[in-house]
Design a protein that fits this description.
The chain has about 600 residues and is of the alpha/beta class. The protein contains 15 helices and 26 strands. Strands 2-1-3-4-9-8-7-5-6 form a nine-stranded mixed beta sheet, sandwiched between helices. Strands 15, 16, 17, 18, 19, 21, 23 and 26 form an eight-stranded mixed beta sheet that branches. It is globular, with a radius of gyration of 24 Å.
Length: about 600
């Protein structure tokens, strides 16, 4: 079998491993962590993924130890690295400091899976707290990081190779070379391509849908647009009912822009449903992030069912189509050992039940954003649609934080060279493949990207109270902070729309090199040095696959000028710049 097996221990990056292996031309299959060795003997290689558990926890997921005797090349990544060490006689301990984000990996020997590297230091992406303390007999260390002396190991005789960091993450600059070397060790034939994916997916759509039709919820983003084109190519546009739901949480003027994009992309008979009043009413008085996402997802389904009933559509003759991509699934805790980071609107419980019943079709659910864009280009979608900034299905609703009361205390941290304040609000993050819900820390001081780039991960790695670091843009210095209780109201969304419009317009001038992949503008119910006002956070990030991201370092003078323009919006008291990578901070705040 010319295929690599990936044993899934719940890492946020498991499908990213599959993505990267595909990009190197090889098919892979993601399997349950406890798959018996007898079912793995025909694979050409095996990868043991990362995951949120600790190998020292007796309740952590296990593997069939007989796989070590299969004589098949084996690669352990992060938790997989620790599990191999633990099972074969080494030891794993809780580290003194975790490694979350960028770190430096120094290659000591260019052998095994490091054979394509040079004996030098590379930037890599780590996400772990436990660390290997001693190697099993027969294993040798090939490289180190500042916090880990056994960051890459191998046993050539047993064809076992391990890494503490994540080679599949874009920011691991040597990662693809490492995976490429492992593939060479397996002897795999490289026969996967985007063209092959499209060919196989069109056949799969035809087989799954049969004589039925598809009711597709379409947003105007690249995911649902590529989904439409795949479905239309396989079935014909007359068998698709495409509906765009205007929730009231879109960007300013975006509904008209999306309608124009979709028409140009070939979407025939687009149906627009105005649900603004319904959504604001359903979310009245709600502030808990997961509850908001649940209501938004349920409302999409309620509207879909209502429209289908009005059109007299027989539910036995229709499937529901969604432009789900893999990060939506994994962040929703959609694999056996994965932690839930946040529930996506296309992964609410009712949708999960419909998937089990075979009533959902999701042609691109195994892909990452970069692959979706590759498919879109092959299918002829216009560049301006493919390259649009991603926008979440719930829209600005998940960029408008809501609070009833203070969430924590406003306090000072000791950070040399800066004034640092912990804000009384929380946001979601992901560290070591686990969800965190912690405070942001705001820094005030002299701006220098090199200093901030180094300082931000150090602060989040060393504190269990924070998972984000911000830098003051406008409205400081901070002397007092008060909470302005607020929910999802038309007034607050209008404020956010105005700020978001200023940001998106400014990026056209500031970001000529198109470094920014996505730029959430976030409204915080915090009033700085005043009462009854709010604050804005700028979150420009650079990424390719959603699962990891770096904050983008833009021209600071231009950002300060933008901050002053945002302060002119009534009710805005301060502007911050989010200088957190992913991990530890997710791209969205909720």
């Amino acid at each position: 079998m010319n295929k690599i097996a990936i044993l899934d221990f719940g890492s946020q990056f498991t499908h990213l491993l599959a993505n990267r292996i595909r990009r190197l031309g090889v098919y892979s299959e993601i399997l349950d962590a406890e798959t018996p060795a007898s079912e793995l003997k025909d694979y050409i290689g095996i990868v043991i993924s990362g995951g949120p558990a600790s190998v020292n926890d007796p309740n952590s997921p296990q593997l069939d130890e007989a796989i070590f005797d299969l004589n098949i090349p084996l690669l352990g990544v992060c938790f997989g690295h620790q599990l191999i060490m633990h099972k074969l006689g080494g030891s794993v301990k809780t580290g003194e400091a975790g490694e979350y984000g960028l770190t430096e990996f120094t290659v000591q020997k260019t052998e095994g899976h490091l054979s394509k590297l040079e004996a030098k230091t590379y930037q890599v992406y780590a996400s772990h707290f436990d660390t290997v303390a001693a190697l099993p007999e027969g294993f040798e260390s090939l490289g180190t990081t500042p916090e880990d002396e056994f960051s890459a190991t191998y046993n050539a005789d047993r064809k076992i190779y391990t890494l503490q960091f994540h080679p599949e993450v874009t920011h691991s600059e040597c990662g693809m070379d490492i995976l490429d070397s492992f593939i060479e060790i397996t002897g795999a034939t490289r026969d996967w391509s985007i063209e092959k994916f499209i060919e196989l997916e069109l056949a799969a759509i035809t087989a799954k849908v049969g004589s039925k039709k598809v009711f597709l919820l379409i947003s105007g983003g690249v995911d649902s647009s590529v989904t439409y084109v795949l479905l239309a190519k396989a079935l014909g546009p007359d068998r698709i009912y495409a509906m765009y739901v205007d929730t009231g949480f879109m960007r300013k003027g975006e509904t008209e822009e999306i309608k124009a994009f979709l028409t140009e992309a070939g979407v025939e008979n687009l149906h627009v449903y105005d649900a603004k009043d319904e959504y604001f009413e359903a979310l009245k008085g709600k502030y808990e992030p997961e509850e908001k996402r649940q209501i938004i997802g349920d409302k999409f389904l309620e509207i879909q069912r209502r429209v289908a009933k009005e059109l007299n559509l027989n539910p036995d003759e229709w499937l529901l189509g969604q432009g789900t991509i893999y990060p939506d699934t994994v962040e929703s805790g959609g694999t056996k050992n994965a932690h839930k980071i946040k529930t996506h609107h296309n992964r609410v419980p009712e949708i999960e039940e419909m998937i089990k019943a075979g009533k959902i079709i999701e042609p691109i659910k195994e892909l990452y954003k970069d692959e979706v864009r590759m498919v879109g280009r092959k299918l002829g979608l216009p560049d301006k649609m493919i390259d649009r900034h991603p926008f979440p299905g719930p829209g600005l609703a998940v960029r408008c934080l809501c609070l009833e009361n203070t969430d924590g205390e406003f306090k000072t941290h000791e950070v040399p060279g800066f004034t640092a304040h912990q804000l009384p609000v929380k946001s979601v993050g992901v560290q070591g493949d686990e969800r965190t819900y912690r405070h942001p820390l705001v820094l005030e001081g002299d701006h220098d990207w090199a200093t901030l780039r180094d300082l931000s991960p150090k602060l989040t790695n060393s504190s269990k109270e924070i998972n984000r670091v911000l830098f003051m843009v406008a409205g400081g210095p901070i002397e007092s902070v008060s909470v302005t209780p607020g929910y999802l109201t038309k007034e607050r969304i209008t404020t956010l729309q105005e700020a978001d419009k200023l940001v998106m317009n400014a990026l056209e001038e500031i970001d000529k090199e198109k470094l920014v992949w996505q730029c959430p503008t976030v409204l915080l119910p915090l009033s700085i040095n005043s009462e009854g006002q709010e604050s804005i956070v700028l979150r420009p990030i650079s990424s390719t696959n959603v699962m990891t991201a770096n904050f983008t370092e833009l021209n600071w003078q231009k950002i300060q000028e933008l901050g002053q323009e945002i302060l002119k919006i009534p009710g805005v008291s301060a502007v911050f710049y989010d200088i957190t990578n992913k991990p530890p901070g997710t791209i969205e705040w909720e």
